[in-house]
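Notebook, p. 212. Picked up where the previous page left off. The plan for this session was modest: take the two constructs that came back from the sequencing core last week, fold each one, and keep the raw output in the notebook itself so nobody has to go hunting through shared drives later. Recording the first one now, exactly as returned: residue sequence, then the C-alpha coordinate string.
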Amino acid sequence: MTAKYSRVIHVRVPLDLHAIADGDASAFALVTPLSLVQILALAVRQSIGERAPRDLFERNFERTLAALDSGEITVTVDGRECRRLDEVVACGTNASVRFFLSRARLSSIAAMFR
Protein backbone atom coordinates (compact mmCIF):
# COMPACT_ATOMS: atom_id res chain seq x y z
CA MET A 1 0.00 0.00 0.00
CA THR A 2 1.41 3.41 -0.95
CA ALA A 3 0.93 6.48 1.15
CA LYS A 4 -0.90 9.41 -0.35
CA TYR A 5 0.73 12.69 0.49
CA SER A 6 -1.62 15.60 0.36
CA ARG A 7 -1.31 19.04 1.82
CA VAL A 8 -4.33 21.26 2.27
CA ILE A 9 -4.03 24.86 3.33
CA HIS A 10 -7.04 25.93 5.37
CA VAL A 11 -7.45 29.70 5.30
CA ARG A 12 -9.83 31.76 7.38
CA VAL A 13 -12.03 33.88 5.16
CA PRO A 14 -12.43 37.48 6.31
CA LEU A 15 -16.00 38.74 6.57
CA ASP A 16 -16.96 41.78 4.52
CA LEU A 17 -18.59 43.72 7.36
CA HIS A 18 -19.06 46.78 5.14
CA ALA A 19 -21.19 44.80 2.66
CA ILE A 20 -23.23 43.33 5.51
CA ALA A 21 -23.89 46.72 7.11
CA ASP A 22 -24.53 48.75 3.95
CA GLY A 23 -26.60 46.24 2.04
CA ASP A 24 -28.29 44.76 5.08
CA ALA A 25 -27.34 41.45 3.50
CA SER A 26 -26.85 38.81 6.15
CA ALA A 27 -25.93 36.34 3.39
CA PHE A 28 -22.45 37.93 3.31
CA ALA A 29 -22.01 36.81 6.92
CA LEU A 30 -22.32 33.18 5.76
CA VAL A 31 -20.67 33.30 2.34
CA THR A 32 -18.04 35.77 1.20
CA PRO A 33 -17.15 36.11 -2.50
CA LEU A 34 -13.38 36.34 -2.99
CA SER A 35 -11.29 36.49 -6.13
CA LEU A 36 -8.74 33.73 -6.64
CA VAL A 37 -5.97 36.30 -6.17
CA GLN A 38 -7.29 37.14 -2.69
CA ILE A 39 -7.57 33.46 -1.78
CA LEU A 40 -4.02 32.79 -3.00
CA ALA A 41 -2.71 35.72 -0.94
CA LEU A 42 -4.40 34.25 2.16
CA ALA A 43 -3.02 30.77 1.37
CA VAL A 44 0.55 32.00 0.82
CA ARG A 45 0.43 34.02 4.04
CA GLN A 46 -0.94 30.99 5.92
CA SER A 47 1.74 28.66 4.54
CA ILE A 48 4.75 30.88 5.29
CA GLY A 49 3.40 32.16 8.60
CA GLU A 50 1.96 35.40 9.85
CA ARG A 51 5.31 36.64 11.12
CA ALA A 52 7.24 36.07 7.89
CA PRO A 53 8.84 39.19 6.40
CA ARG A 54 6.87 41.12 3.79
CA ASP A 55 9.50 40.58 1.06
CA LEU A 56 9.34 36.79 1.58
CA PHE A 57 5.56 36.92 1.24
CA GLU A 58 5.78 39.03 -1.92
CA ARG A 59 8.32 36.71 -3.57
CA ASN A 60 6.26 33.59 -2.78
CA PHE A 61 3.01 35.25 -3.85
CA GLU A 62 4.46 36.47 -7.18
CA ARG A 63 5.93 33.00 -7.86
CA THR A 64 2.56 31.39 -7.12
CA LEU A 65 0.77 33.78 -9.51
CA ALA A 66 3.36 33.17 -12.23
CA ALA A 67 3.13 29.38 -11.84
CA LEU A 68 -0.66 29.48 -12.10
CA ASP A 69 -0.57 31.83 -15.07
CA SER A 70 1.94 29.61 -16.91
CA GLY A 71 -0.07 26.45 -16.25
CA GLU A 72 2.69 24.97 -14.10
CA ILE A 73 0.23 24.47 -11.25
CA THR A 74 -3.51 24.22 -10.81
CA VAL A 75 -5.42 25.25 -7.71
CA THR A 76 -8.59 23.92 -6.14
CA VAL A 77 -10.64 25.85 -3.62
CA ASP A 78 -13.05 23.68 -1.64
CA GLY A 79 -12.70 21.01 -4.33
CA ARG A 80 -13.45 23.35 -7.24
CA GLU A 81 -10.65 23.74 -9.80
CA CYS A 82 -9.73 27.36 -10.48
CA ARG A 83 -7.60 28.40 -13.45
CA ARG A 84 -8.14 32.15 -13.92
CA LEU A 85 -6.90 34.77 -11.49
CA ASP A 86 -10.07 36.84 -11.92
CA GLU A 87 -12.35 33.94 -10.94
CA VAL A 88 -14.61 34.64 -7.97
CA VAL A 89 -15.22 31.88 -5.45
CA ALA A 90 -17.92 31.93 -2.79
CA CYS A 91 -16.30 30.89 0.48
CA GLY A 92 -17.72 30.12 3.90
CA THR A 93 -15.78 30.89 7.07
CA ASN A 94 -12.88 28.68 5.91
CA ALA A 95 -11.58 27.69 2.49
CA SER A 96 -9.53 24.58 1.70
CA VAL A 97 -6.89 25.41 -0.89
CA ARG A 98 -4.84 22.74 -2.69
CA PHE A 99 -2.04 23.17 -5.20
CA PHE A 100 -1.29 20.56 -7.86
CA LEU A 101 1.67 20.38 -10.24
CA SER A 102 0.79 19.97 -13.91
CA ARG A 103 1.60 16.66 -15.61
CA ALA A 104 4.28 18.33 -17.71
CA ARG A 105 5.96 19.71 -14.60
CA LEU A 106 5.78 16.32 -12.86
CA SER A 107 7.33 14.66 -15.91
CA SER A 108 10.22 17.12 -15.97
CA ILE A 109 10.88 16.58 -12.26
CA ALA A 110 10.75 12.79 -12.68
CA ALA A 111 13.21 13.02 -15.61
CA MET A 112 15.78 14.68 -13.34
CA PHE A 113 15.82 11.60 -11.09
CA ARG A 114 16.19 8.97 -13.83
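Okay, moving on. Second construct, recorded in the same format:
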Amino acid sequence: MVSALKITLIFYGVFVFYLFGKYEKIPYSARKVIFVIGNGGCLFLAGGLVTSNFYLIKGGIFILLIHALIDAHFLISKYEMFKSIEKEEEKKDEKE
Protein backbone atom coordinates (compact mmCIF):
# COMPACT_ATOMS: atom_id res chain seq x y z
CA MET A 1 0.00 0.00 0.00
CA VAL A 2 2.95 2.31 0.60
CA SER A 3 4.14 1.83 -2.99
CA ALA A 4 0.65 2.71 -4.24
CA LEU A 5 0.81 5.90 -2.18
CA LYS A 6 4.19 6.81 -3.67
CA ILE A 7 2.94 6.23 -7.22
CA THR A 8 -0.20 8.25 -6.51
CA LEU A 9 1.79 11.14 -5.05
CA ILE A 10 4.14 11.24 -8.04
CA PHE A 11 1.28 11.07 -10.55
CA TYR A 12 -0.74 13.67 -8.64
CA GLY A 13 2.20 16.07 -8.41
CA VAL A 14 3.16 15.76 -12.06
CA PHE A 15 -0.45 16.09 -13.20
CA VAL A 16 -1.13 19.19 -11.09
CA PHE A 17 2.12 20.93 -12.04
CA TYR A 18 1.46 20.15 -15.71
CA LEU A 19 -2.03 21.63 -15.59
CA PHE A 20 -1.02 24.75 -13.67
CA GLY A 21 1.98 25.21 -15.96
CA LYS A 22 0.03 24.85 -19.18
CA TYR A 23 -3.35 26.41 -18.38
CA GLU A 24 -2.59 28.42 -15.19
CA LYS A 25 -5.67 26.76 -13.72
CA ILE A 26 -7.34 23.35 -13.52
CA PRO A 27 -9.64 22.86 -16.53
CA TYR A 28 -13.14 21.65 -15.79
CA SER A 29 -12.55 18.37 -17.64
CA ALA A 30 -9.51 17.59 -15.47
CA ARG A 31 -11.35 18.33 -12.21
CA LYS A 32 -12.91 14.86 -12.30
CA VAL A 33 -9.47 13.23 -12.29
CA ILE A 34 -8.35 15.52 -9.46
CA PHE A 35 -11.49 14.59 -7.51
CA VAL A 36 -10.85 10.85 -7.92
CA ILE A 37 -7.25 11.19 -6.77
CA GLY A 38 -8.44 13.36 -3.86
CA ASN A 39 -10.70 10.50 -2.79
CA GLY A 40 -7.63 8.28 -2.88
CA GLY A 41 -6.23 10.49 -0.13
CA CYS A 42 -9.17 9.49 2.06
CA LEU A 43 -8.46 5.84 1.38
CA PHE A 44 -4.77 6.16 2.21
CA LEU A 45 -5.62 8.06 5.40
CA ALA A 46 -8.11 5.40 6.45
CA GLY A 47 -5.67 2.60 5.60
CA GLY A 48 -2.97 4.31 7.63
CA LEU A 49 -5.27 4.69 10.61
CA VAL A 50 -6.33 1.05 10.48
CA THR A 51 -2.79 -0.32 10.11
CA SER A 52 -1.16 2.40 12.29
CA ASN A 53 1.17 3.32 9.43
CA PHE A 54 2.31 6.91 9.96
CA TYR A 55 3.60 7.24 6.38
CA LEU A 56 0.16 6.44 4.95
CA ILE A 57 -1.48 8.89 7.35
CA LYS A 58 0.88 11.70 6.31
CA GLY A 59 0.43 10.86 2.62
CA GLY A 60 -3.37 10.82 2.90
CA ILE A 61 -3.43 14.14 4.74
CA PHE A 62 -1.05 15.63 2.16
CA ILE A 63 -3.29 14.57 -0.74
CA LEU A 64 -6.35 15.97 1.04
CA LEU A 65 -4.59 19.29 1.73
CA ILE A 66 -3.48 19.65 -1.89
CA HIS A 67 -7.03 18.86 -3.01
CA ALA A 68 -8.38 21.51 -0.63
CA LEU A 69 -5.91 24.08 -1.99
CA ILE A 70 -6.92 23.27 -5.57
CA ASP A 71 -10.59 23.69 -4.65
CA ALA A 72 -9.82 26.99 -2.91
CA HIS A 73 -7.95 28.19 -6.01
CA PHE A 74 -10.94 27.22 -8.16
CA LEU A 75 -13.38 29.13 -5.91
CA ILE A 76 -11.18 32.21 -5.69
CA SER A 77 -10.67 32.33 -9.46
CA LYS A 78 -14.45 32.01 -10.04
CA TYR A 79 -15.05 34.83 -7.53
CA GLU A 80 -12.50 37.05 -9.25
CA MET A 81 -14.03 36.28 -12.65
CA PHE A 82 -17.52 37.26 -11.49
CA LYS A 83 -16.15 40.35 -9.79
CA SER A 84 -14.44 41.49 -12.99
CA ILE A 85 -17.63 40.88 -14.99
CA GLU A 86 -19.58 43.06 -12.54
CA LYS A 87 -17.00 45.85 -12.85
CA GLU A 88 -17.21 45.70 -16.65
CA GLU A 89 -21.00 45.91 -16.47
CA GLU A 90 -20.79 48.91 -14.14
CA LYS A 91 -18.40 50.70 -16.50
CA LYS A 92 -20.71 49.90 -19.40
CA ASP A 93 -23.70 51.31 -17.52
CA GLU A 94 -21.77 54.47 -16.63
CA LYS A 95 -20.92 55.08 -20.29
CA GLU A 96 -24.57 54.82 -21.29
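Notes on construct two before I forget. The chain has one domain: 2-69.
Flagging for discussion at group meeting.
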